[in-house]
Specification:
Chain lengths: ~110, ~110
């Protein structure tokens, strides 16, 4: 069974703090790594799709890095705001498979 | 585009009844996915289609679950007979074909089986 692990499961930060989460995955047969943002009462929305070892993506205050050789990706949020509160999901594509999601990291940002 | 459209938004049914969930993907997308969200397992893949053809249904829990995609603009997920443990949020998502393409999710169907 393909295992995509995310840590921590949840965290709580103060407004203005910077934070990061980890996604770990099997490095074999790697195709792509996706990050999604899932706000309460909404549907998951794509943040990044990364395919190459060493890839770095950035969208505003959110950025992500990828290491396919060791099987991990980091998501960083700089200067967290209350509107960043959401569950952040990573998902793995291996060759010939559909996206398999981790269980997510739930971020809560207090003002 | 209206995005991925799922219906119904909420379904409450009694154990043993047949349940049909519906999905209209984004026009032009040729991959369609059904996921189920539970507290225990997170977002788990049930089945996905490419160009209306089921590619991987290994995530379908058992024979009570079936999915069809009769054309490029419509898919159904059927549970017959339903059981309380089927209670979950069922998401449909679509994408352009290819591993590098991001998924677009529908609003989900909240299913409660009493």
């Amino acid at each position: 069974i393909l295992n995509v692990e995310q840590s921590p499961q949840s965290l709580h930060v103060q407004e203005g703090d910077s934070t990061n989460f980890t996604c770990s995955f099997p490095s074999s047969n790697f195709y792509a790594l996706h990050w999604y943002r899932w706000e309460t009462a909404k549907s998951p929305e794509a943040l990044f799709v990364m395919t190459l070892n060493g890839d770095e993506k950035k969208k505003g205050r959110i950025s992500a890095t990828l290491n396919t050789k060791e099987g991990y990706s980091y998501l960083y949020i700089k200067g967290s705001q209350p509107e960043d509160s959401a569950t952040y999901l990573c998902a793995l594509n291996q060759a010939g498979t559909a996206l398999i999601f981790g269980k997510g990291t739930t971020l809560s940002v207090s003002s | 585009d209206a995005g991925v459209i799922q219906s119904p938004r909420h379904e409450v049914t009694e154990m043993g009844q047949e349940v049909t969930l519906r999905c209209k993907p984004i026009s032009g997308h040729n991959s369609l996915f059904w996921y189920r969200q539970t507290m225990m397992r997170g977002l788990e893949l049930l089945i996905y289609f490419n160009n209306n053809v089921p590619i991987d249904d290994s995530g379908m829990p058992e024979d009570r679950f079936s999915a069809k995609m009769p054309n490029a603009s419509f898919s159904t997920l059927k549970i017959q007979p339903s059981e309380p443990r089927d209670s979950a949020v069922y998401f449909c998502a679509s994408s352009l074909e290819g591993s590098f393409e991001k998924l677009f999710f529908g609003s989900g169907t909240q299913l409660s089986v009493l």
